[in-house]
Amino acid sequence: MTLLDALGWRYAVKQFSDEKIIEEELKDLLDAVRLSASSYGLQPYRIVVVESKVVRERLLPFSYGQDKIAQSSHLIVFAAQTELGDGTVDHYIDKCAEISNKHHRELVHFSDQMKSALAAKTPEQRQQWAHQQAYIALGNLLTCAAVMKIDSCPMTGFDSVGYDDVLGLAKKGLTTSVICPIGRRHLDDVQVHRPKVRFDYDELVMEI
Ligand SMILES: Cc1cc2nc3c(=O)[nH]c(=O)nc-3n(C[C@H](O)[C@H](O)[C@H](O)COP(=O)(O)O)c2cc1C
Questions:
Q1: How far from 151 is each of 60, 159, 178, 202, CA to CA, in Å?
Q2: Is 26 helix (H, G, I), strand (E, B) or coil?
Q3: Mind listing the pLDDT tens digit of every residue in the chain (208 residues)?
Q4: Does 8 contact ligand 1 (Cβ within 6 A)?
Q5: Ligand 1: centre distance to CA 88 (Å)
Q6: What gap in Å lies between CA 62 and CA 136, rounded to an integer?
Q7: What is the C-alpha to C-alpha distance for residues 190 and 198, in angstroms, rounded to an integer?
Q8: Contact between residue 17 and residue 183 where contact means Cβ atoms under 8 Å apart
Q9: Where are the chain's structural domains?
Q10: What is the distance between the alpha carbons of residues 36 and 16, in angstroms, rounded to a whole number?
Q11: Element housing 145 (H / E)
């Protein structure tokens, strides 16, 4: 299957079957998402995997009637960090030093550059920036899942306050950005027959 075939095959599933995604497939998918690009590489979000039916049923009242969050195999929650500043950069620099076998003093310039860029934003802009990075990871999840023939449905139709509360995210310095149930499409899912609606290449792509 080519990449274009995979993207043509995927759609936002409305009804999932009760088939589970096996552990290894899930790990591979999340490992692919872990490789997502992010601004400066800071990855200012965490990926919460909710398998427990009990927890997902507790999320239902905050999901605008979209019971696929409980029907699916797993619910993936992208949660942006809420404490964004020097600590975010220091944590990343520790990892850079470890991976590239460099001393922290060799990374001071890079570190200062990132700290200044973050400090130049308002708290609201920093939060927005963190949510944007989470969305990049969501896009990657959708594509990688399609390539792996795993079904998904990106969702912003939920109440983030309720999600943060049920998942205990605030005390972990996180807030829900976007969610994505994954699993296998139900054979009766009416959406599967809906044609893909996309603007034509010439309308969407401007060649200058
Ligand atoms: C950020 C985002 C939020 C979305 N929220 C929902 C949602 O809450 N519920 C839903 O059923 N579909 C949701 N969708 C799915 C879109 O409606 C769907 O991707 C779009 O109509 C294109 O169709 P396709 O993905 O099936 O090709 C969302 C998609 C994105 C990217």
A1: 20, 23, 17, 29
A2: helix
A3: 899 999 999 999 999 999 999 999 999 999 999 999 999 999 999 999 999 999 999 999 999 999 999 999 999 999 999 999 999 999 999 999 999 999 999 999 999 999 999 999 999 999 999 999 999 999 999 999 999 999 999 999 999 999 999 999 999 999 999 999 999 999 999 999 999 999 999 999 999 9
A4: no
A5: 31
A6: 24
A7: 19
A8: yes
A9: 3-35+44-81+134-204
A10: 26
A11: helix 123-147
Residue count of the chain: 208
Name which of 105, 84, 101 is nearest 40 in CA terms. 84
Class of domain 3-35+44-81+134-204: alpha beta
Who's near 193: CB < 8 A, 6+ residues apart? none
Q: Is the pTM of this model over 0.90?
A: yes
Tokens coding 37:
């690009």
Using a 6 Å cutoff on CB, does residue 136 contact ligand 1?
no
Would the CB of 196 count as within 6 Å of ligand 1? Answer: yes
